[in-house]
Amino acid sequence: MSIQKSQFITAAVLLFGSQLLHAQLNDFVPLSDDALNNPDAADWLRWRGNHSANGYSSLDQLTPENAHKLRLAWAWNMESGESEQEPLVYDGIMFLPHTNGKVQALDATDGELIWEYKRRLPPGMQNATTRGLALYEDRIFLTTDDAFLVALDAKTGERAWEIRTGNPDDRVNYSSAPIAAAGKVFAGQTCGTGTPRACALMAHDAETGEILWRRESVAGPDDPVEHNATWGRVPHEMRRKASFWLTGSYDPELETVYWTTASPYPYPEILKGTTDGGDLLYSNSILALDANTGDIKWFFQMQPRDNFDMDHQDNPILADVEVDGVVRKVVFVLGKPGIQWAFDRQTGEYLWHKQLVPFQNLYDHIDPETGAIRMNESLIPEQIGDQRVVCPGMRGGKLFQTDAYSPKTQVLYSPVSNECTNYEVVSLETNVSGVNYSKLLHMQDSNGQVGRLAAISATTGEILWNYDQRAALGSVLTTGGGLVFVGDLHRYFMALDATSGAVVWSIPLGSPVTGYPISYAVDGKQYIAVGVGGGSAGTRHLAQLYPELKIQHGNSMLMVFALSD
Asked: How far from 167 is each of 190, 370, 398, 536, CA to CA, in Å?
């Protein structure tokens, strides 16, 4: 793993606009840990807004009473491809990631282009997802589809250093934003189906890119014996995948990073060689890692013995809330099975769980006192050719979407998809995943409504309201003005009253709303920004359940809204 510094032939930087117009960058103030730990309400400083990853903005100019006055303020074309981007905003400058490893600095009031960094990716790597960036001191940190972590000068877009941490030929790369804090950059790898290895989460020196520690997503010989044993006879080098494909959260006081892991590969255990019933640690888990060493402080596995690619990729939300009369430091997690989980983030103690989808058949039982899980073993396939209907399935529950939490209402706002999948076990020669999962089904008791936004009390886990609709929903933003913003995978972007769930504003856009919505302010004016466009294979697959909506996967664009003058 080599670290390279200028000069480079794999990227181009273009500068635009007048220096007078963009004096913010001339007077750029490096973003300190103190500023990240106590963000200005006008800024959106990291993926999902802050280290708690709660998708919350305290800005309150927009309310249920005036949301109907929202209008398009400006729009910006983005690179075509899988558009699930989230921009950052700092002191009136927007830093926008695109597919294809492109980053732009824009004036956040009108989209005026300041500088652009464009990576020249190898053939065959175009149009893949780049979900976000990290900003720290005077640098922007980008992860790429060709498995590089890149540091850019925030003022110019020029590259300071880059380091390659994986081999794309092994289907190991990046698709999510890093976290930058305390002199480090934390970045989790994405491992595609068919990969010959496990994924890893790494901490890098923010100044140099040097790897400080590396934590694999699967248990191995250096882990506790009982954890290593959960893979049975499968040797360490054959324990594969378990991606870190969404970004985690960070508690600076506890010096802990929280990251979720995805499914092991191949999916059916008869093809993995784990028919002895092991849990396959640490797949489909929440990991609490020492930020200084990478050691696991505690973990909880939400989906043991996975046979169906039931990823638990989430933005683990951190909040201090009262549970059973005691204020607890809590982390909330959600995954494809559609179960919302709450844990004490300091100790890992289970607090509560709540099923958000109307029906599930993955679990026989989850103990309400301990969180102990008993899986539905009748679903586990026994031979090639077996078929199973699993609810939620491959595209159900929470996929790429992110939930949000409002400290003001102490409510979680969680999007899930009411979907089931008909799985057929096939040979690896037939399908590299080991299953055919092309056929999606409507979920029992869903009334054909695929999209659900659930409002859940963070204190008790009680569902306060559900908003259901035909098309699946995307990611969520909530604000201090009492609004919840969410788009759908048809083409509508809407605002709901955070208290009642009533839709108070909506607008049809040109493509599915697949970006992560943000809010920021410049000169006292609040803006809402969200990306639309092509989306991922998962979002396109879900459209099978509502064919009458005639979804258009068009050009990718960033749409920015504000109150009309």
From this structure: 11, 40, 28, 22
Q: Is the pLDDT of residue 535 over 80?
A: no
Name the nearest CA neighbour of 405 among 260, 244, 249, 563: 249
Helix, strand, coil share of the chain (percent; to 5): 10, 40, 50
The residues, ordered by sequence, that sit 6+ positions from 373 with a Cβ below 8 Å of its Cβ are 301, 302, 304, 363, 365, 366, 367
According to the model, what pLDDT value does residue 14 have?
73
What is the spatial distance between Cα 152 and Cα 554, in angstroms, rounded to a whole number? 30
Task: Determine phi and psi for 181, rounding to 5 degrees.
Answer: -170, 150
**Count helices and strands in the chain by DSSP H and E runs:** 5, 44
Residues 475 and 531: their CA atoms lie apart, in Å, by 11
SS3 114: strand
DSSP secondary structure string for all residues of 158-205 = -EEEEEE-S-GGGTEE--S--EEETTEEEEE-EE-TT-SSB-EEEEEE
DSSP secondary structure string, 36-65? HHS--TT-B-BTTSSTT---EE---S--TT
Domains present along the chain, CATH in parentheses: 123-315 (2.40.128.630)
> Distance (Å, rounded) from C-alpha 114 to C-alpha 91?
14
Nearest to 202 by CA among 143, 120, 159: 143
Distance in angstroms (rounded) separating the CA atoms of residues 49 and 404: 10
Q: H-helix or E-strand containing 269?
A: helix 269-272
C-alpha to C-alpha distance for 86 and 400, rounded to whole angstroms: 13
Residue type, 126: Q
Mean pLDDT value across residues 259-288 = 96
Cα separations (Å) of 250 from 13, 144, 291, 469?
Answer: 31, 22, 8, 33
State the Cα–Cα distance between residues 306 and 506, nearest whole angstrom: 38
Q: What pLDDT, on the 0 to 100 scale, is given for residue 195?
A: 85
208 CB burial (10 A radius; 0-12, 13-18, 19+): middle
The rounded distance, in Å, linking the Cα atoms of 79 and 442 is 33
Q: How far apart are CA 443 and CA 436, in angstroms?
A: 19
Q: How many residues does the chain have?
A: 565
List, as own/partner pairs, every contact residues 446-451 make where C-beta atoms lie below 8 angstroms and the sequence separation is at least 24, other chains included.
446/357, 446/358, 446/359, 446/418, 449/418, 450/417, 450/418, 450/419, 450/542, 450/545, 450/546, 451/415, 451/417, 451/418, 451/488, 451/489
Beta-carbon contacts of 198 under 8 Å, excluding residues fewer than 6 positions away, are 191, 216, 217, 218, 239, 240, 241, 242
pLDDT digits (tens, 9 = 90+) for 98-152: 988 899 999 999 999 999 999 888 877 766 778 999 999 999 999 999 999 999 9
Read off the amino acid at residue 420.
C
- Predicted confidence (pLDDT) per residue in 322-356, tens digit: 999 999 999 999 999 999 999 999 999 999 999 99
| CB-based contact 36:51 (threshold 8 Å) | yes
Specify the 3-state DSSP secondary structure of 406: strand
CA distances from 396 to 143, 417, 422, 502 (A): 27, 5, 12, 24
Task: Name the residue among 494, 300, 473 with its Cα closest to residue 399.
Answer: 473
